[in-house]
Specification:
Low-confidence stretches: none
CATH class of the domain at 1-121: Alpha Beta
Order of helices and strands: EHEHEHEHEHEHHEHE
Distance between the termini: 37 Å
Number of helices: 8
Helix content: 40-55%
Length: 183
C-alpha cells in the first residue's frame, strides 16, 4: 500500500489504520527526517523522499515490479497521475483531496490495461448518504484517539489573527501533522 504525503494529517491516520490492518506500508514525505519519524513512531515499512527520487520508481523497486494494491492520495494533480502508475494489477487508487491545486487534467487511460480503479472519497457526502455506517466508524476513531490507540499529531498552533503564518507553514511543507488555527 502506498500513502502519499505520509507526514500530513490524512497520511498519518492512513498509516496507522493500514498498520493496524496488517498492511505493508510505503509512504512518501519530503525529507529523510520525516520518513525516519514515520518509521520510528508509526511503523512505516518503506519511505520514499519524493524530493530525492521518483516515487514511481521506488514503488516498483520495493514491490518487485508488481505495484501496489492500494494507493491513498491526498495530494492530487501530477502526484495523482503518478499514483496511478504505482498500481498493480486490479489495484485501486483512492483520492481524498487535491492539496496540490495544480489543475492538471487526469489521464485515466492507464487504468484499463491493468483493470485498475480510481475512487474519489469526500467524507462530507459519505457521512450524509451513509450515516448509519459512517457515524459509528467516526465514533470508534474518536474513541481510539481518546485511548491513545490512534494518534493525532499537531505540528503547530496559530491564533486566528496569524492565519497567514499558519498557511505559510502548511505551504512550506515543513509541517509534520496538523497545523491548527485557534480562535
Amino acid at each position: 500500500m502506498l500513502i502519499q504525503a505520509g507526514a500530513g494529517g490524512v497520511g498519518l491516520a492512513a498509516i496507522q489504520l493500514a498498520k493496524r490492518a496488517g498492511a505493508t506500508v510505503i509512504a512518501t514525505a519530503g525529507s529523510d527526517a520525516k520518513l525516519a519519524r514515520l518509521r520510528d513512531e508509526f511503523g512505516l515499512d518503506h519511505g520514499v523522499d519524493y524530493r530525492a527520487r521518483s516515487f514511481v520508481d521506488a514503488v516498483r523497486e520495493i514491490t518487485g515490479g508488481r505495484g501496489c494494491d492500494l494507493v491513498v492520495d491526498s495530494v492530487g494533480g501530477a502526484v495523482l497521475q503518478d499514483s496511478l502508475a504505482c498500481l498493480g494489477y486490479r489495484g485501486r487508487c483512492i483520492t481524498v483531496g487535491d492539496a496540490s491545486r495544480s489543475g492538471k487534467q487526469l489521464d485515466v487511460a492507464s487504468l484499463s490495461a491493468g483493470n485498475r480503479s480510481l475512487t474519489g472519497v469526500f467524507l462530507g457526502a459519505e457521512s450524509f448518504f451513509q450515516r448509519a455506517r459512517v457515524h459509528p466508524m467516526i465514533a470508534r476513531h474518536i474513541e481510539d484517539v481518546a485511548k491513545g490507540a490512534l494518534r493525532v499529531v499537531v505540528d503547530s498552533r496559530f491564533p486566528l489573527a496569524e492565519a497567514a503564518a499558519a498557511h505559510a507553514r502548511v505551504e512550506s511543507r515543513a509541517a509534520f501533522g496538523r497545523v491548527l488555527l485557534i480562535p
